[in-house]
Each structure stands twice: as C-alpha cells, then as structure tokens.
Amino acid sequence: MPVVVDIDVMLAKRKMSVGVLAERVGITPANLAVLKNGRAKAVRFTTLAALCEVLECQPGDLLRWEPEERAGDVPLAGSGAQPLTSGPDS
Length: 90
Fold this sequence. Notes:
5 helices, 2 strands
C-alpha cells in the first residue's frame, strides 16, 4: 500500500505506549494496532485529529505516501537509479 503509517515513530518520540495512546484517543488497542500496522482501509478524520492532539503532531507526521514500484516502471530522472539498458547499443 502506498500510504505508510508512522504512528510507531511518533509513539517512540513521545515515549508513549500503544495502550496509553489508545486510552487517550478513545479507541481500542486492537483498532489502534490495525491502524498502526498499516492494515486499516480507512481512518476517520475525528480519529486522526484525536491522534494528532494526543501526540502533538500534524497528520503528515503520522501518514506519508510512497509510490509503489511496478514491474516495467522506468525510474524518474534524478532518482539515483541507473537506467535499464536493452543491449550494447543503449
């Protein structure tokens, strides 16, 4: 999934446990684990806002987008990856 959840990073920075965060946000530890481990299909804005309030952060500190690499994709210029060659003439 191209959206990566970094709740564990913020928990470490705040030296807070999953249980404490779940209690303060008002969700079950199991539901927080689903979100934290990237298995959630959606997150309510009210939950995201509560997470940000408790962790004193911005939504972008908790969620980030990483493009998925697919077979046949050509690396973008400046990405540091070497272009693929098809033979001695390339």
